[in-house]
Amino acid sequence: MSVSYIRKDILAPQAPPVSQSGVIRWVRENLLSGPFNTILTLLAILALYQLVALSWPWLSNGVWSGANSMADCRAIVAANSGPDATGACWAMIRERWPQFIFGFYPPSLWWRPILTFGLLFVALAPVLYADNKRAMSTLCGVVGLLMVLCLIGADGFSSHTAVAVALMVALTAIAATKPRLLLILTLLFPFTALWLLWGGSVWGPIVALLGFLVMALVYSLVAPKLGSVMGASTGFIAACLWWLFLQPHVSEAWQALLPLELLYVSSDKFGGFLLAFVIGVSAISISLPLGILLALGRRSDMFLVKTLSVGFIEFVRGVPLITMLFTASLLLQYFLPPQTNFDLILRVVILVTIFSAAYNAEVVRGGLAALPRGQYEAADALGLDYWQAQRLIIMPQALKIAIPGIVSTFIGLFKDTTLVSFVGLADPLRGITTIVRADINWKGIYWEPYIFVGAIFFIVCFGMSRYSMYLENKLKTDHR
423: how many CB neighbours lie within 10 A of its CB? Predict the structure, then answer.
């Protein structure tokens, strides 16, 4: 005789088994999922243990203060941990950090690169977070606070600090209320940074900015009659004529009429991470639009444009960057008129920009090639001309696809700024480190400066990588 049973009450949900949830599940699936994976995990743990066991005594016995030389560090380590102990001498970083950051920039003028670096992030805010008012205001506020603290530490609470406080409060308020106005700072930042870092007459950057207004005016007059390409070409030629022949005279006239200037700082005073950021930020911001134009030129139907673009890209990609840097340092001057003073940092920025633009062109071309033909046909069906189609339909999608490759190129470019040491510039990795190690007081130090410089490079590059991931997720519109 069978008795049927029907449950009338729903059982309460129970927690999953311990082996199928939490950390244990993650370890089983990712570290111990099979014999081969288990062996690799055990080998990795063994290697990590050996690395920590060998480096921990050196790190834990490190000297952070109270030492003015390598001999003092060794004496302190011997006194604290025994005569046979070894320890890192971080006191060298504590004493020489200004050289790693500012190079040989005059200490009394440190407020200028600090202010420039703070304004850099404010200028980037509307570009990085175009439709996120909260993120822009938060970034401006945090950067302003850190910048003021750095100014107080470098210059005390001086008039420069007071002006910086007022400026950052105003910019933070603008970011919280009318963030689009920050785009004005974004457009003016290159000229502001040039004046703050190098100094000299304020009329030089202002008159240089007028060259772009001349370009826009000529374009607006020529483009409606002869097309966008002729308008852009004519405008560029007009701007170059302005910069080469009229700008010096106009700047001198305004300086004589209304003298406004900062103390001039020559390029040989630049060094450390100040130099790395000047070269890196300049090359990154210019190489991307130049790479986009080269990518479009390579895919063009016009034979001359395509041939020139392909030749330029393949030539630059086939030449090592160090060769181009030597060209900028030694050979470029021979092709300029006599008595021409072409700044070395400017020459390096131009060559590094060209080098990066060639690689960006191929990355962007890959994004263009990934788009289906239907996107181009849709643009034609809407009656858009070539540049309207590229601006509104094609290029936004191509750049979204190419984001990982573009950011990877930017990271490689920023790290490659250390190669400028081969042309006599004091980069943070080789130039400043060599100078510090040449000091008799720090003779024998080796790992500490490289670890310090490498950590800062890692933070910057990791930040770019994380922003790339944020941008990819933000722009991800598919449903996979």
Answer: 18
| CA–CA gap between residue 199 and residue 120 (Å, rounded) | 17
Q: Which of 187, 361, 390 is nearest to 288 (CA)?
A: 361
Amino acid letter at 251?
S
DSSP state of 300: -
Give me the amino acid identity at 446.
Y
Measured distance CA(119)–CA(298) in Å, rounded: 36
Residues 191, 206 contacting (CB under 8 angstroms):
yes
33 Cβ contact partners less than 8 Å away, ≥ 6 residues apart: none
Q: Are the C-beta atoms of 303 and 369 separated by less than 8 Å?
A: no
Rounded Cα distance between 363 and 313, Å, is 12
CA-wise closest residue to 356 among 421, 423, 427, 279: 279
Q: Across the 480 residues of the chain, what is the mean pLDDT of every consecutive 10-residue run?
A: 71 77 82 88 94 89 86 88 85 89 91 92 88 86 90 81 89 88 90 92 90 91 83 89 87 89 90 93 93 91 89 91 82 68 84 92 91 88 86 89 92 91 85 84 87 93 92 72
Strand partners, 63: 89
**Strand locations in 241-290, DSSP E?**
261-262
Instruction: Give the Å distances, CA to CA, from 440 to 11, 68, 257, 443.
Output: 78, 11, 51, 5
Q: Which two tokens stand for residue 307?
A: 């041939």
Q: What does the pLDDT read at residue 336?
A: 65
The pTM (predicted TM-score) of the whole model is: 0.88
pLDDT recorded at residue 435: 84
3-state helix, strand, coil in the chain (%, to 5): 80, 0, 20
Using an 8 Å Cβ cutoff, are 307 and 404 in contact?
A: no
Question: Residue 345: in which H helix or E strand, if any?
Answer: helix 344-370
pLDDT at 285 (0 to 100): 92
Dist. CA 480–CA 478, nearest whole Å: 6
Burial code (b: 16+ CB inside 10 Å, e: under 16) for 153-192 equals ebbeeeebbeebbebbeebbebbeeebeebeebeeebbbb
Q: For residues 264 and 280, give the distance between their C-alpha atoms in angstroms, rounded to a whole number.
A: 22
Taking residue 233's Cβ as centre, other Cβ atoms within 10 Å add up to 15
> b vs e for 216-228, b when ≥16 Cβ sit within 10 Å of the residue's Cβ?
eebbeebbeeeee
What does the alpha-carbon distance between residue 34 and residue 340 come to, in Å, rounded to a whole number? 68
Distances (CA, A) of 278 to 38, 291, 299, 383, 400: 47, 20, 32, 43, 27
Q: In terms of Cα–Cα distance, which of 399, 398, 392, 364 is closest to 378? A: 392
Biggest CA pair distance of the chain: 116
Count CB neighbours of 143 within 10 A. Answer: 21
Strand partners of residue 200: 262
